[in-house]
Amino acid sequence: MQSNAVITGIGLLTPLGLSADATWSSLLAGQSIGDHATIALATPTAGDRVAMLARRAAAEAIAQAGWSEATLSDPRTALVVATSKGEVVAWITPSPHGAENSRVTGGPQPSGVASVDAVRAEDKHIVCNGPQPSGVASVAAAVATDLGMTGPRLTVSAACAGGLQAIIRATVLLAAGDADRVLVVAAEASVHAMFLGSFGRMGVLARPEIGCRPFDARREGFLMAEAAAAVCVERDGDGVRIVRVALAGDAHHLTAPDPSGIALRRMLGYLAGDDPIDLVHAHATGTQLNDPVELAAIAESVGDPRRPPVVYSHKAALGHSLGAAGLVAGALNVLAHRHGVVPGNIHTTDPLAAPGCVLSPTPIRRTIGRSLLLANGFG
Question: What is the pLDDT of residues 1-14, one digit of tens each?
Fold first, then answer.
C-alpha cells in the first residue's frame, strides 16, 4: 500500500550502545559483538527485562518526537509492539528456590514478571501467578501502563519479520483513520541456552571466531543478540517519510526461503518503483540459504550500474535480534538519511556477486534520498 506516514522520532538500545546515537557511533567506528550478546545496563533491571528494554527505547523516541504526556494519553495515540518471544526467558528460568530440573507448568503463565508464588518440592513444579497479560502481550501492557497510554494497542509476533510488520500496522492504522499517531516498539531479550540450542540444531549460528558475515562466501550464520527499538509515526511532521509498504508470504517451507525468491522479487519491484534507491538495508542473516536468494533478488530488482545502491546489514555488528531486528533496521535507516552515511559490512571480506550494487566493508558517505529495508520471517 501507499503511505504518507512520517517517522518523527527514534530510540535504540543494542549491545553496542544504550541510545540511537551511541549505537550509530559504534557502527561507524567498525565495532561489532564477538559472541551472542546481551545489552550491558548500568543499573539492575526491575520487572521483566524485555519490557524494560522496550520502555527505554520508547522513552528515547518519544523525547525526540516531542510528544507530551497529554499526547501519549490521547485515545488517538496508538501503540504497536513487536516481539517474537516476549517475556519467555522470565518464565522458563527456574526459581532460585527450586531444585535441579525444575520445570514451569502450563507454558507461559499470566505473569508480567514471572514471580514465583509457590514451589511444590515434591514434584519440582514451579507455579507462576499474576494478573498481568501473558507471553508477548505483556510487553505492550507494560509499555502502555508506564506511559499512560489509553489508545488502541496491538502486539505483532511474526518471527524475524515482526519489527517491520509493526511499522506496516502503524501505517494501516493511520491510513484507516483509527489513530492520529502511533508509537511502534520492538524488543527482544531471548539470548538463552534453549534458543541457542534450537538455532544451533538448525545450523544457522556462526562460530564466534567467524562471526556473522552477511553476503560473504565464507558465511556460517548469525550471532543472537538483545535489542530494542522504537519509532514515533505521525500523519505529518518533520522526519523520514514512509512511502510504500508491502507484505508477502511464499509458503515454500516452514523455515527455509523459496530458492526462486519470487515473492521477494515481486515486493522489491513494487517498493522500488521507477525511482532510484540509495540504500537497501537487507535482512541478510549470514546464513547459507537466505543470503544468496535475497541478494539475487535485490540485484535484479533495484541494482543499477549507473547509480548502484549500497546494500547493508547491521547483523554483522549488532547480531540478530529476531523480532526486534526489522525495527532496528528502520531506526538505522533514519540515521543514514539524517547523516548521509551508511556503515560498513565489517565482516564481509569475500562478498557474493551483486551486479549493480555496492557491498562495502567500510562506511560510505552519500546522500540517502530513498532507502528500502527488508525483514524475513519463518514460513
Answer: 888 899 999 999 99
Confidence of residue 133 (pLDDT cuts 50, 70, 90): low
Side chain identity, residue 163: G
Mean pLDDT value across the chain = 87
Among 132-146, 190-204, 252-266, 351-365, where is mean pLDDT lowest? 132-146
Q: Distance between CA atoms of 15 and 365, rounded to whole angstroms?
A: 24
Distance (Å, whole) CA 13 – CA 213: 22
Return the residue matching grid coordinates 484507516: 176
Amino acid at 243: V
> Which among 51, 49, 13 has a CA at the least distance from the CA of 138?
51
d(CA 53, CA 45): 9
Q: Whole-model pTM? A: 0.88
Phi-psi region of 278 (alpha: psi -120 to 50; beta: other; left: phi over 0): alpha
DSSP codes of every residue in 107-166: SS-S-SS--EEEEETTTTEEEE--SSPPTTHHHHHHHHHHHT--S-EEEE--GGGHHHHH
| Residue 22 burial by Cβ neighbours in a 10 Å radius (0-12, 13-18, 19+) | middle
